[in-house]
Amino acid sequence: AAAVPAAVYMLQDQEAHAAEMERTFIAIKPDGVQRGLISEIVSRFERKGYKLVAIKLIVPSKEFAQKHYHDLKERPFFNGLCDFLSSGPVLAMVWEGEGVIKYGRKLIGATDPQKSEPGTIRGDFAVVVGRNIIHGSDGPETAKDEIALWFEPKELVSYTSNAEKWIYG
Ligand code: ADP
Predict the structure, then answer these.
(1) Positive or negative: CA dihedral 32, 35, 39, 43
(2) Which residues pair with 58 in a beta bridge?
């Protein structure tokens, strides 16, 4: 058989590693953007060791907000929530890493900031449930759906971070 250069195997390993990695959808809502919390929030995910694979600032339409929150359409706050999400710029992101869906929710804290622990994003920076500054997918299925709703496949950037071997060993 023809010799395959070692570099090709390495590349395949990296791709396989990246393909297995979990991804989640995280969004800084209009209140978090307006309050100047973008760098603070991005930095918490970055310092933890998660990898940013997509990011964009957009003002979603109300119809788009309704799609994003379709699971909550029977709730009394649904209309106000969709008005709010579409009221200004939202920073939409995809973060990648082992356990990022569940641990991302831990970094974010409980839905109601009154119940979020100090040290979490909502615990540290929010006071009421209607202005809790950040969204994070709550499971693998929603993560997949939300990433597909907010991003085109070509907007997701696959790359190897030099820090990976220090984060994962
Ligand atoms: P999470 O964002 O933590 O996944 P949910 O999916 O239950 O929480 O709710 C989505 C969003 O709806 C919350 O982040 C919050 O902004 C809003 N919300 C939830 N409950 C209420 C409520 N009782 N009144 C107003 N807004 C609410």
Answers:
(1) negative
(2) 90
Provide the ipTM. 0.98
To the question of whether residue 29 is assigned a binding role by annotation, the answer is yes
DSSP3 helix / strand / coil % (the chain, rounded to 5): 50, 15, 35
- The pair of three-digit structure tokens given for residue 99, joined into one six-digit string: 């356990």
Say whether 142 counts as a known binding-site residue. Answer: no
CA of 131 to the centre of ligand 1 (A): 9
Count CA atoms within 13 Å of residue 89 on its CB side.
12
What span, in angstroms and rounded, lies between the C-alpha atoms of 158 and 162? 13
> 107 near 120, Cβ under 8 Å?
yes
Kindly state the tokens that stand for 78.
């649904």
Name the strand (E) or helix (H) holding 98. none
pLDDT digits (tens, 9 = 90+) for 105-156: 999 999 999 999 999 999 999 999 999 999 999 999 999 999 999 999 999 9
